[in-house]
Amino acid sequence: MAKPLTRKRASLRLDAAATITGLGLGFTLAVLVSTLSVDDVNGVYPIITTISRVAALSGSYLALVGLMMVARIPWIERAVGHDRLVLWHRKSAPYSLFLILFHVLLVVLGYAATDRIRVGAELWRLVTTYPWMLPAFVAFILFMTAGISSYKRARAKIKYETWWTIHLYTYLGIALSFMHQIQTGVMFINHPLNRAYWIALYVVVASCIITWRVIVPLTKSFKLKLKVEKVEIEGPGIISIYVSGKNIAKLGAKGGQFFNWRFLTSEHWYQSHPFSLSAAPKHNQLRLTVKNLGDHSSSLINLEKGTRVMVEGPYGTFTASRTDIRRPLVLIGGGVGITPIRAMIEDMPAHTSADLIYRTSRVEDLIMKSELETLCDEKGIRLHLMAGPRSQYPLDAKALKSLIHNVRDAEFYVCGPNQLTDAIKKAALDLKMPASRVHHEIFEYHSVLEKE
């Protein structure tokens, strides 16, 4: 079982990863520069073609970095947090796509001007006559489709399952574009060291993905023999799923973390979804709590006892071991976002100086109320239940100052809808608190809470 990672060690790992990434980008650009000739910059159109190659290499490198962000590498996952890595992946992906788009546009423009034919005719000629160009063009279409489907407005109109399937095809796109790069890229032809470096990059990325997204989850789930034990209704549209297995302690999971869950039924086997633990692991049992959002989650209530389960994880840094016990803690959960906080509290020592704020729109949405009351009583945590409209229970600087003693000295841990997180961040800013003392679990990327 891995030891808890201190903030200092996490920062050092992050710095090391950033340094390696930066050096890799520099080396990638050096690959192109080392193969330039006078002809590559002798005129407007050769310069356009050369710029297109810079865009291609940079875009491809950023795409590989993006894949590494979601490869589930434990060394970096534990330092940064899975949710933030996925968010960084989402933020960086458009830059990669734009660079690849610029490459296609510029190379077609440069070649068309050199050959003195129309741009459309040049594109057709390249795709139909150049070696490995047709697979590369298919890859380009797959990349652009994934990018458009991830655009916020488009993403809001399609099911998670559809978006996830489209996203999977980007792996095919990367494989199709690889041979185009190696076989036709002027920086690789007759340059064995450059080619070896580029192949090594792809091999490393592919190995990481296959190891930590396929082999490790399969092996882990097979050994643990995870199965659904029971499903219970917690509240309106909210259920808890109990999963049992052998030697679950070997997972090293902590309260507040989450797994990617895959339930092996005809309806669910082909997709995984991230859900937080709603209780600290114990007695060879895991518990997750899910809100019905009308998609995959709506049918989980029908899971039968004995259904086999596969997991990836645990992920997340939202744990008791990462809290600063020298400061008072303010734990804030909104809606079903209370579940990781409830699990996190179990791992806290007794007599913790903390306040728990539980925010919902209605009284009937206060799930696990009795559990929270018992836990808070055992740990000495002050519980504040806020069920009602925001106007009745504002969470601005004034409200927090009147509710929490020495609020400016506190560390905030927030989990809930984006509006709640934004409100707490603004309140902390108004209280002149440093942003580093507001910790929040980001649920944007899987939309579990953003529809709250």
TrEMBL record:
Gene Ontology cellular-component terms listed: membrane
> Which GO molecular function entries does the Swiss-Prot or TrEMBL record give?
2 iron, 2 sulfur cluster binding; flavin adenine dinucleotide binding; metal ion binding; oxidoreductase activity
InterPro entries assigned:
FAD-bd_8 (IPR013112), FAD-bd_FR_type (IPR017927), Fe3_Rdtase_TM_dom (IPR013130), FNR_nucleotide-bd (IPR039261), MRET (IPR050415), OxRdtase_FAD/NAD-bd (IPR001433), Riboflavin_synthase-like_b-brl (IPR017938)
Cofactor(s) listed: FAD
Name the principal localization, coarsely classed: membrane
Cite the FAD-binding FR-type domain residue spans from the record: 221-321
Q: Where in the cell is it found?
A: Membrane
In Swiss-Prot or TrEMBL terms, this protein is called Unannotated protein
Annotated source species: freshwater metagenome
